[in-house]
Design goal:
Blueprint: H1 8-35, H2 42-53, H3 56-66, H4 70-95, H5 97-115, H6 123-149, H7 168-207, E1 260-264, E2 270-272, H8 274-279, E3 283-290, E4 301-310, H9 311-318, E5 326-331, E6 336-340, E7 351-356, E8 359-360, E9 370-372, H10 378-381, E10 386-392, E11 415-420, E12 426-427, E13 430-439, E14 445-452, E15 457-459, E16 461-462, E17 472-480, E18 483-493, E19 516-521
Helix pairs in contact: 1-4, 1-6, 1-7, 2-4, 2-5, 4-5, 5-6, 6-7
The protein binds ligand MTE and molybdenum atom (MO).
Length: 522
C-alpha cells in the first residue's frame, strides 16, 4: 500500500478502482437480495427512499422532465452518486485500506436504513445484503489497488525507472482486474434481479385472489372414470401438465404493471389492468389442450379447468371491425399465435384464462393471463403471458409458427391413445383391461374401438365427459391368449367421422394414424 499521496497515474487508477469496487459491492448486493428471502435491492431501496423524501413539486417536475423514464433517471442518479462516492473511497483506500472499509460500511448502513422503508424487507435480510456488499466491495478494492500499484518490471532484477508507473503492461494488468470487477458486478446484479423477480412473481401469484366465476363448471364425478389402473387421469394436475413454448427463461410478469391491450381493427383500442380484466366477468370451462407436435400415442396433451373472461366479451369491449378475420395473441416475449375471429363468436368457450384448476395460472403456463381456445392446437391459439390481442386479417399477418412451416389453421384432429397395457409390457393370459383416452375437442368422442392383431374392431366402454372439449377415458376387456399381440385403437367423433389410419407426422398440421402397442401375453 502507498503511504504518502499517490502519484498521479496511481491516483487515477485508485479512483477508478474505487468506482469498480463500488460496482462490485452493488452487484453482489443485488445477488444477495435475490438469494435471501425478504431481501431487497439496496439500490432500489435508496431510490425509493429518495422518492419518499423529495417534496411533491420536485416529483412533479421530474415526471414532467423525464416522463416514464423518471425511474430510470433516478436509479441512474443513485448509481452516479455511488460511483462518485466510490472514487473517493478508492483514493482513501490507496492511503489506508481501513479508511475505505469504514467508508464502505457507512455505505452499507445507508442501504440498511433505506431498506427499512420497504415492507417486503426484513432487517436481518437487509443487514445480510449490506454485509455481503460491503465485504465484496472491500475485497474488490484491495485487489484493484494491488493491481494499480503493481509494477511488473520490478519482478526482474532491474530497478524501476521513473515513468514506469504507467507502463503498458502495468496498465493492462490493472485494466484486466478492473474489467473482471465490472463483469462480476454485472453478472451478479443480473442474476440477483432475476432471482428477485422470480420470488416476487411467486409471491404476487400466491397473494392473488381471483373472483369467483358466474356459474360453476360441473365437477368431475366418478362417471368420468373408467376405473382402470394406469389410465390417464381425467384432470391433469398443474404440476404434471405438459409445457411447450419457445421461452428460454420463463417470462416473469409483474401483475401490477401488466396490461392487456386490444389493438388493430377495432373501434375502441383497449388497455386493461388485471383487475379490470377479471371485472369483466369470469366463466369456467373444462378444455383439453393439445400440442400439434404430439406424436400418435404422445403425451403433449392435458385437461384442465380454465377460468377466464370469455374472449368475445373482451373483443366486444373493443368493438371488432367488419373484415377483421384474424385474432392474434401476442406474448410479453413477442411470441404470437393467430386464429379465425369466428372462433371467438361461434359459441365455443374461447377465453382469456387467468386460472388453471382453481389457482392462478402457474408461471410456466402463462401467468397472469393466456388464451385458451377449445378445438385448436396450442400453436395457433393458446398464447401464454398474453399482453396484446390484435385484430387483423388472415392475409395480413402470419403468427410465429406459420413462416416456420406449420399450417395456418390448426383444428385439433380426432385421436386416441392406449395407456394400458404399455407397449412392450408382458401380461398374463386371460382377462386384461385395455384402457386409454380419446379426444376430438369441439366435436366430442362418440365411439372408441379396439382391434387385436387383424381381428374385428370391438367397441370400448366410454366414461362420461363434462363437455365435448375434453378427452374421454375408454376401456375394453380383452381375453388375452398367449403370444405376441398388437393392440390398436381408433375413435369416432360425434359427427360420425372415424380417425384416419393414414400415418402422418406432426408437421405441418398434426399427426394421424392409429396408436398401436405391442404386448406379450405369457
Ligand atoms: N408465449 C407463448 N405461448 C405459447 C407458446 C409459446 O411458445 N410461447 N407455445 C404454444 C404451444 S405450441 C402450446 S402447445 C401451448 C402449450 O401450453 P402449455 O405449456 O401451458 O401446456 O402453449 C402455446 N402458447
Ligand atoms: Mo404446441
Amino acid at each position: 500500500m502507498v503511504a504518502s499521496s499517490p502519484p498521479a497515474p496511481l491516483g487515477r487508477r485508485a479512483a477508478l478502482g474505487g468506482v469498480v469496487a463500488t460496482g462490485v459491492a452493488l452487484g453482489v448486493g443485488e445477488l444477495a437480495a435475490g438469494l435471501l428471502p425478504a431481501g431487497v435491492s439496496p439500490v432500489l431501496a435508496v431510490g425509493a427512499a429518495v422518492i419518499d423524501a423529495v417534496p411533491p413539486q420536485v416529483k412533479d417536475l421530474a415526471i414532467r422532465w423525464f416522463g416514464t423514464a423518471d425511474k430510470a433517471v433516478l436509479i441512474g442518479g443513485v448509481l452516479v452518486l455511488s460511483s462518485a462516492f466510490g472514487a473517493g473511497l478508492g483514493l482513501l483506500g490507496a492511503r489506508r485500506l481501513l479508511w475505505a472499509a469504514v467508508g464502505f460500511a457507512a455505505f452499507g448502513v445507508v442501504g440498511v436504513l433505506a431498506s427499512t422503508g420497504d415492507p417486503r424487507a426484513s432487517l436481518a435480510a437487509a443487514a445480510g445484503v449490506a454485509a455481503a456488499a460491503v465485504l465484496a466491495g472491500v475485497v474488490a478494492l484491495r485487489a484493484l489497488l494491488r493491481a494499480a500499484a503493481r509494477h511488473p518490471q520490478r519482478r526482474g532484477d532491474r530497478r524501476p525507472d521513473v515513468g514506469e508507473v504507467a507502463s503498458a503492461a502495468d496498465r493492462r494488468a490493472f485494466l484486466t482486474t478492473a474489467v473482471s470487477g465490472l463483469a462480476v458486478a454485472a453478472v451478479s446484479a443480473t442474476i440477483g434481479r432475476s432471482l428477485f423477480r422470480r420470488a416476487g412473481v411467486a409471491t404476487a401469484r400466491a397473494a392473488l385472489v381471483l373472483p369467483q366465476p358466474t356459474g360453476r363448471a360441473p365437477s368431475p364425478g366418478p362417471a368420468v372414470r373408467v376405473g382402470v389402473e394406469g389410465v390417464t387421469p381425467y384432470v391433469t394436475p398443474n404440476e404434471s401438465f405438459y409445457r411447450i413454448d419457445t421461452a428460454l427463461s420463463v417470462p416473469r410478469v409483474d401483475v401490477d404493471t401488466w396490461r392487456l391491450r386490444v389493438t388493430g381493427e377495432v373501434e375502441r383500442p383497449l388497455e386493461l389492468t388485471f383487475d379490470e380484466l377479471v371485472d369483466v366477468g369470469l366463466v369456467e370451462h373444462w378444455t383439453t389442450l393439445t400440442c400439434v407436435s404430439n406424436e400418435v400415442g404422445g403425451h403433449l396433451i392435458g385437461n384442465a379447468l380454465w377460468r377466464g373472461v370469455p374472449l368475445r366479451r373482451v373483443l366486444d369491449l373493443a368493438g371488432v371491425r367488419a373484415g377483421a378475420t384474424q385474432v392474434v395473441g401476442r406474448s410479453v416475449d413477442g411470441w404470437t399465435a393467430g386464429f379465425p375471429t369466428q372462433a371467438a363468436y361461434d359459441g365455443r368457450a374461447a377465453m382469456v384464462a387467468v386460472a388453471m384448476n382453481g389457482e392462478p395460472l402457474p408461471v410456466e403456463h402463462g401467468f397472469p393471463a393466456r388464451l385458451v381456445v377449445p378445438g385448436l392446437y396450442g400453436y395457433v391459439s393458446a398464447t401464454k403471458w398474453l399482453t396484446e390481442i390484435e385484430l387483423t386479417t388472415l392475409e395480413a399477418f402470419d403468427a410465429y409458427w406459420i413462416p416456420r412451416g406449420w399450417a395456418k389453421f390448426g383444428p385439433v384432429k380426432t385421436q386416441s391413445r392406449i395407456d394400458v397395457p404399455r407397449s412392450g409390457a408382458t401380461v398374463a393370459a386371460g382377462e386384461v383391461a385395455v384402457a386409454g383416452v380419446a379426444w376430438a375437442q369441439g366435436r366430442g368422442v362418440a365411439d372408441v374401438e379396439v382391434q387385436v392383431d387383424d381381428g374385428p374392431w370391438a367397441p370400448a366402454r366410454l366414461a362420461g365427459v363434462l363437455n365435448d372439449d375434453t378427452w374421454r377415458q375408454w376401456a375394453w376387456s380383452w381375453q388375452a391368449t398367449p403370444g405376441r399381440h398388437l393392440l390398436r385403437v381408433r375413435a369416432t367423433d360425434d359427427r360420425g367421422e372415424t380417425q384416419t389410419s393414414a400415418v402422418a407426422p406432426p408437421a405441418p398440421d398434426g399427426a394421424t394414424g392409429w396408436h398401436t402397442v405391442s404386448v406379450e401375453v405369457a
